[in-house]
Amino acid sequence: MKTIKQICITGGTCGGKTTAFNMLKKNLNYPNLQIFWIPESATEMMDRNISPMEDNVGLDNFQVLNLKNQLFRENLCLEAARNCQKDNALIICDRSSFEQQVFLDTKEEFDIICNKCGTTQENLKNSYDAVFHLVSTAIGAEFAFGMINNEHRIHNIEESRIQELKAQKIWTGHKAFYIFENNVPFDKKMDNVIDSVKHFIEENYTNM
Questions:
Q1: How far apart (Å, rounded) are the C-alpha atoms in residues 175 and 130?
Q2: What is the pLDDT along the chain (208 residues), one digit of tens a residue?
Q3: Which residues pair with 88 in a beta bridge?
Q4: CA angle (52 as vertex; 46, 56 as ends), nearest 5
């Protein structure tokens, strides 16, 4: 029977999430595992000029479009995983469908967005078999905040601290939630993420 897992690489502002995602692409090589990669939805949309800062989009509508985009891509990869030739498949997401509520004021707002997309917060949270969260440099590595560039980044260090704590809180209780803090050099932080993902793979699949 085919084994399919889905994980996400996530984290706060300047935490190294996208760097880790790209490094994993270069470091994960398992002959019997088909890996599907899903880049960050919000960045992809803003590259298309679908932005919460545009008057014709707005924040609420952007969040609905963003969630629909993420779920479409996850479902597409899930279908591909079910039909791939290999017996094992892994979907790795740069960010998740669940955490965009960090950018909203209340849980109820996200409930409305989920309802518009035909899902629930519980379903979104449980759709990931593991969550690898890289803490923002706004907490514990303030000297590095802003050193990793993203043209779409709009949050300052104080806002990023608030969002970081909200992100950790919403994932509390998840069955496999791993946090990577800034108590080690950045390169070591990346190594820790890669090692943890490899450990997850080796624990959850056979005949790798």
A1: 7
A2: 789 999 999 998 889 999 999 999 999 999 999 999 999 998 888 888 887 766 555 667 888 999 999 999 999 999 999 999 999 999 999 999 999 888 888 889 999 999 999 999 999 999 999 999 999 998 987 877 765 554 445 567 888 888 899 999 999 999 999 999 999 999 999 999 999 999 999 999 977 6
A3: 3, 33
A4: 100
For CA atoms 169, 175, 180, 181, the dihedral sign is positive
- Rounded Cα gap, residues 67 and 30, in angstroms: 30
- What backbone torsions phi and psi does residue 85 show, to the nearest 5 degrees? -75, -30
Please state the pTM of the whole predicted model.
0.90
Specify whether the CB–CB gap between 205 and 4 falls below 8 A. Answer: no
Which two structure tokens, joined as six digits, stand for 111? 């409930």
> Which residues, 6 or more positions from 10, have their beta carbon under 8 angstroms from its beta carbon?
17, 94, 95, 96, 99, 131, 132, 133, 134, 167
The contacts of residue 97 (CB under 8 Å, 6+ apart) are: 67, 70, 71, 74, 124, 127
